[in-house]
From TrEMBL:
This is DNA repair protein RadC. PROSITE patterns: MPN, UPF0758. Keywords: Hydrolase, Metal-binding, Metalloprotease, Protease, Zinc. PANTHER family: DNA REPAIR PROTEIN RADC, UPF0758 PROTEIN YEES-RELATED.
Length: 287
């Protein structure tokens, strides 16, 4: 029940008369309560029972919560108190979307996003049109999601540029899984490195269909010369999720390795990126 802060002037013993033309003074809540109490007492038990019956169903206003979530269960409060690691994928999306979804529960929108893409990693490969048809996701939210995904990709690239990639194979694999792991078609990328094995540039060298891709070793050799690269890591994804290389993958690796050797550029590895695992030609002993 709401509290009322009432101030009551101390009147002198003699009664105060109102100024001519003044509006009648309003009684304070406390005074009203006193009058009600006096009236109720004078009227007897019957009046008190009738008044109690009239007040049935009147309750103090309840604190509003978002859906079924109490304040201490909301993602933002849990992140602040316990850290981001305790949040589910749905809750992370809720924090990104924030509020401003009139007529749509933000938790349902987040679940719908995950249902469409399957995982956060797959969302990183989404385009603007991939969000079409999702209720509660307008142009502003689409742009916001795409910007955050691009920030994640760029941060990994910057992180790799500051490292000697030969000493950070897991960083390379993490980046490639993020970059091409969830794509619906085969993509072939080349990481050009300098003499100290630092990243010069990461480029998409070829893009194919679900099952076929044409890669031209001479174009990769030409690009390595133009960037003055000393070594190279190449990778491609398998949309099926399996990482076992095909016969054509083995032939391409052999051809590219020999072609780069002619210009004194070393092919460090060829990685095949799957759903959850990575195949390394170098670790497997090459084709």
């Amino acid at each position: 029940m709401a509290d009322y802060a009432c101030t009551i002037d101390k009147a002198p013993p003699e009664a105060r008369l109102p100024e001519p033309g003044a509006a009648p003074a309003r009684a304070s809540p406390r005074a009203c309560a006193a009058v009600d109490s006096a009236t109720s007492t004078a009227a007897g038990p019957g009046a008190r029972i009738a008044k109690a019956a009239a007040n049935i169903g009147k309750s103090a206003p309840q604190r509003l919560v978002r859906g079924k979530w109490l304040k201490h269960d909301m993602p933002r409060e849990r992140l602040i108190e316990q850290g981001p690691g305790v949040l589910s994928d749905t809750e992370m999306i809720v924090l990104v979307l924030g509020s401003g979804l009139p007529g749509h529960d933000v938790f349902n929108v987040a679940r719908t996003l995950l249902d469409r893409f399957g995982s956060l990693r797959a969302m990183l490969d989404a385009t603007y049109s991939d969000f079409d048809g999702l209720r509660g996701i307008g142009p502003a939210k689409k742009a916001q999601l795409l910007a955050i995904m691009e920030m994640a990709r760029r941060s990994l690239v910057d992180k790799m540029r500051d490292r000697v990639l030969m000493n950070s194979p897991e960083a390379v694999k993490d980046y490639l899984r993020l970059y091409i792991g969830g794509k619906a078609q085969e993509v072939f990328v080349s990481l050009f490195l300098d003499a100290r094995h630092r990243l010069i540039r990461c480029e998409e060298s070829a893009r194919g269909t679900l099952t076929r891709m044409a890669v031209y070793p001479r174009e990769i050799v030409r690009r390595a010369l133009s960037l003055n690269a000393a070594s190279l890591i190449v990778a491609h994804n398998h949309p099926s999720g399996a990482v076992q290389p095909s016969a054509s993958d083995c032939r391409l690796t052999h051809t590219l390795r020999d072609a780069l050797a002619l210009i004194d550029v070393r092919l460090i590895d060829h990685l095949v990126i799957g759903a959850d695992t990575t195949y390394s030609f170098a670790h497997a002993g090459w084709p």
